[in-house]
Amino acid sequence: MYILNLALKRLISRPANTLLSLLLFAIGISIISLIILADRQMKESVQRNLAGVDLVMGAKGSPVQLILSSVLHADYPTGNINLREAQNIARNPLVKQYIPLALGDNYRGFRIVGTTIEYAELYNAALAEGRWFEDVPEVTVGYRVARMTGLEVGDRFYGVHGFRDVGHAHDYFHYTVTGIMAQTGSVVDNLILTPIESVWAVHDGHDHDHDGHNHDDCDHEHHEHDHDECDHHHDNHQHHNHDSHDDHEHSHFHQAENHLDDPQLNEIRLRIEAGEDISREEMEFFIASQQHAHAPGVDDHREITAMLLVYRSPAANIQLPRMINESTNMQAASPALELNRLFSLLAFGFDALNLIAWAIIIISGINIFVHLWNTLKRGIAEIALMRVMGAGRQKVFVMLLVQGMILAFGGWIAGVFLARAIWWFLPSFHFMPDVAFAMLQPGELLLLIYALATGLLASIIPAWMAYRTDVHFTLTRPENA
Amino acid sequence: MLTTHSLIFQYPYGNPFAFPDLQCKAGESLLILGESGSGKTTLLHLLSGILTPQSGDLEVDGTKINQLKNTERDVFRGKQMGMVFQKHFFMEGLSVFENLKAAQKLSGSLSDISHLEQLMEKLGISHLSKKKPYKLSQGEQQRFSIARALANKPSYLLADEPTSSLDDRNCEKFIELIRLPLTEKPVSWIIATHDQRLKKYFSNIYEL
Predict the structure, then answer these.
(1) Helix and strand counts by DSSP (H, E) for chain A
(2) Residues B58, A345: contact at Cβ < 8 Å?
(3) CA 20 to 30 Å from A224, out of A53, A259, A375, B189?
(4) Per-residue pLDDT of chain A (481 residues; tens, 9 = 90+)
(5) Is there a contact between B93 and A13 if contact means CB atoms under 8 Å apart?
(6) Coil, helix or strand at residue A266
(7) Alpha-carbon distances of A209 from A39, A174, A203, B139, rounded to whole Å
(8) Nearest-CA neighbor of A38 among A429, A344, A315, A336?
(9) Half-sphere exposure of A184 (CA within 13 A, CB side)
(10) Could you tell me which residues come within 8 angstroms of residue A250 by beta carbon, excluding any fewer than 6 positions away?
């Protein structure tokens, strides 16, 4: 213990050198530490934001863009798709659940998402206040939205077209806040959820009288075109009122089932439910029959931005995306796949940063070596004196090693703290939830081992020099005698 | 009691030194006089175990120093022998008091703070205890060196040219210092020097 004390005192007696060594080491460590934090944060938040969505259907374009815009709400959408067409694909025994998304507006930078209550359920969002949105002008706002904008239950606000704060305000249509969600740690915290019809109402709004734009609007409009569609949404609302999620989850599926009067279709459906694979032909036949069941004489021009799909069986992954991409004018993208692709691109950046950080750490190691070497050379008489006072060779050897280790350990601690300080002030990405990362990451503990090894390596030669110090020769050198 | 018997030491590529047999009883003091290059420092370093003789015996209070292992010899020196050099060495990062404590700690002795305080008191450096040694004057540094040499209550105090850079007045002061009853048990001073001025103060003199 006394050796540790002496090592510390020796370092403190050269504050400039010691601070430089610590700082340099800390910079290298903090970069790696930040990479570890960012990597973990990104993967975790993305995992949370995927929320079990297996496939996203949207307009053709960049699949990464589709995923970013409709799952992470971080990019502009690729375009619109026809709701009816999307439903025809989604009403499919391979699909357990489908959720439409209609984007287009924001409120003070927070996206207004037209969807169903199932979207909130997907993220296990709970209410903190008020109730869920039910009818057209109603919105339920995410935790962070409420915190940042100060929106409260009962407030009314106008949406702004686009995804940025500035733009054309839809000042003829106001939303009403009916509820505020509790924190989920997912992207939902940054969203304003509303029935999909709200988004339609806003954008069709110019043609209408704006005083009566909810149910009436829907009934009125849809009576002309399509009874089913409007009824469908009313069904949904009834389900929400009764809070019967189980029924609800299957409602789409059962709707599809109603059309299955063909025994061959029934057989395919049963096989899918049993978890068996079906051939591509069977799948296409099935989808075509669905379209047939829904399509005739229907002219629904309703559009949405994207449709999120949750598979019933993994077999869907083999058939569905290819089918959509090849035989429709929509694209299908797998969030997991596309985000992995994105991460592997980011990984190059991380690797480069990592390399720089390790270069800095190695230079810090050399710096520690030079520091110890110089101190030893200048103060070799101190080592001789220690020996005269009864310290064995091993003691002075260990003391030099401890000095190197203290610098490395101190640099590691400073680096880990520095990383957290930087992390704290870093502007968080839109899709990144506010999660405190005070905890040490396993990667950082590994980093500590590398750091100590660097300290050891840097100090081993000075320590050996100290070990080999010839007391007699040192004390009788001309400058000492 | 410190005795040597036909000590021979040879530096690599150098001529061998053959030293006369020495004897120094507990509490007695000894002056080793010799010109530069006569082997005074070599002899002192042999006595303290810093160097090991090629042949001959060295016995201190019943312990054969030249038969100890390296680490044992380091500890024996730390505990039984104080050393004072012409130049005053110290550990830069430590204060005067911490330096004295280091002498106790590094030799593995129990720390005896009251002894250190008494030493500083008697040597008149109590007020300097928190200062770094390099801030002390030459005279203060010499008293500090003596205090450190006595930190472990050694039986022998080995001094190498302690007075050669001092003027006559300070030389006398040094003699006064070493005659002070600084510790409870008497200390044997073994002084190696070429300084003829010291001759008159010692009865036990070896000339190399």
Answers:
(1) 18, 12
(2) no
(3) A259
(4) 899 999 999 999 999 999 999 999 999 999 999 888 888 877 777 778 888 899 999 999 999 999 989 988 888 888 899 988 888 888 878 888 999 999 988 998 899 999 999 999 999 899 999 999 998 889 999 998 999 899 999 999 988 888 777 777 777 788 999 999 998 888 899 899 999 998 888 877 544 443 433 433 334 434 444 444 444 444 444 444 444 444 443 334 334 444 446 777 777 777 766 666 667 777 777 766 665 555 444 457 788 999 999 998 887 888 889 888 988 889 999 998 998 888 888 888 888 988 999 999 999 999 999 999 998 998 899 999 999 998 989 999 999 999 999 999 999 999 999 988 888 777 554 344 445 556 788 889 999 999 999 999 999 999 999 999 999 989 888 777 6
(5) yes
(6) helix
(7) 50, 13, 13, 103
(8) A429
(9) 28
(10) none
CA distance A298 to A213: 23
> Chain A residue with minimal CA distance to B94?
A9
CATH class name, domain B2-207: alpha beta
* ipTM, two decimals: 0.92
Handedness of CA A347, A349, A353, A355 (dihedral sign): positive
Nearest CA among A74, A70, A66 for reference residue A42: A74
Interatomic CA distance for residues A172 and A203, integer angstroms: 11
Please judge whether A382 and B78 are an interchain contact, meaning their C-beta atoms are less than 8 angstroms apart. Answer: no
Q: A2 CB near a chain B CB, below 8 Å?
A: yes
- At residue B163, the 3 state secondary structure works out as coil
Tell me the one-letter amino acid at B98.
E
Show me where the domains of chain B are located: 2-207
Does residue A127 contact residue A150 with C-beta atoms inside 8 Å? no
Q: How far apart are CA A412 and CA A313, in angstroms?
A: 48
A389 touching B, CB under 8 A?
yes
- State the CB neighbour count (10 A cutoff) for residue B151: 26
DSSP state of B19: P
Give first-to-last CA distance, chain B, whole Å: 21
Q: Do B71 and A394 touch (CB under 8 A)?
A: yes
Task: Read off the pTM.
Answer: 0.72
Q: Which residues contact B189 (CB under 8 A, 6 or more apart)?
A: B29, B30, B156, B157, B159, B178
Nearest chain A residue (CA) to B85: A481
Backbone phi, psi, residue B6, to 5°: 40, 60
Helix ranges (H only) for A312-392 are 316-327, 335-378, 380-388
DSSP, residue by residue, A281-299: HHHHHHHHHHHHHH-TT--
